[in-house]
Amino acid sequence: MNTPIIYNSQQYFPIENSVLVGGCFDLLHYGHLNFLKAAAQHGSVVVALESDESITAAKKSPPIHTQQQRAEILSELRCVQQIICLPVLTTYEDYLGLVMVIKPKVLAITEGDPQTENKKHQAKAVGAEIIVVNTLVDGLSSSLIRAKHL
């Protein structure tokens, strides 16, 4: 495992030309891979990985894989340079603080990201660019896969 997994954002070490992506990445699927590879075309991908508690609150059920397991899975992808295992973050200010520590050059998002407006403000705060790197792959989301197959 070559990709560093960081458990405290204060331990983050800056990466030049970083591209910040965030998410749960619970059931890693083709849509996730497309997103991460597309983000990597713009720089070094830093994944902000949501906590188990945050996933449970947002999706009303616990993740299949623990945050540690999800981090290990992501660390095996060549397109990911660093993973930050997040604590429970709930407010705009929490996420802004994370962005201020990382200072990415790009925040990569998927078209239709419900947090687009917040991410635009966060990007502006650090002089980063928001780039829509892909669209959702029809029928591929962890929630849909879970509902149909588990």
Describe this structure in words.
By secondary structure, this protein is α/β, with parallel strands linked by helices. The protein has a single domain (5-149), classed as Rossmann fold (3-Layer(aba) Sandwich), CATH 3.40.50. Helices cover 39% and strands 21% of the residues. The protein is built from six helices and six strands; from the N terminus they run E-E-H-E-H-H-E-H-E-H-E-H. It has a six-stranded parallel sheet with strand order 1-4-3-2-5-6. The longest helix has 11 residues, at 30-40. The relative contact order is 0.22. The mean pLDDT is 89.
The overall pLDDT average reads: 89
Strand content: 15-25%
| CATH H level, superfamily name | HUPs
Number of domains: 1
Pattern of helices and strands: EEHEHHEHEHEH
Low-confidence parts, pLDDT < 50 over ≥5 residues?
none
Shape: globular
Spatial strand arrangement across the major sheet: 1-4-3-2-5-6
State the gist of this model.
The chain has 150 residues and is of the alpha/beta class. The protein is built from 6 helices and 6 strands; from the N terminus they run ββαβααβαβαβα. α4 crosses α5.
List keywords for this structure.
150 residues, alpha/beta, Rossmann fold, 6-stranded parallel beta sheet, 6 strands
What's the structural blueprint in terms of helices and strands?
Blueprint: E1 5-6, E2 18-23, H1 30-40, E3 44-49, H2 52-59, H3 67-75, E4 80-85, H4 92-102, E5 106-110, H5 116-126, E6 129-134, H6 142-149
Helix pairs in contact: 4-5
